[in-house]
Write a structure and sequence with these properties.
Elements: H1 7-14, H2 18-58, H3 62-85
Amino acid sequence: MQPPTTVLEIEAEIGISRTTIYKHLEEIKGLEFEVEFEQKIKKLRRSALEQLYSIGASQNNIKALTEFLKWTEKNTRHTKESVSSN
């Protein structure tokens, strides 16, 4: 037996309304978007930090290096706290 593939088939097999089915489908789509968006933000953040370090190192820019250290210290501290709490 194949799993239901349409909303009408899901409604008939499970017994919940089409409105509820659509609501759940929208929630799933929203969660998938949030996960994908968060992954993109992490990549952009990492790239920005890499560029900040690169500018600081190549141009002997103390301000850029100081900002890099501040941002990476926050990230390192957060990671260490997460690992410690587990």
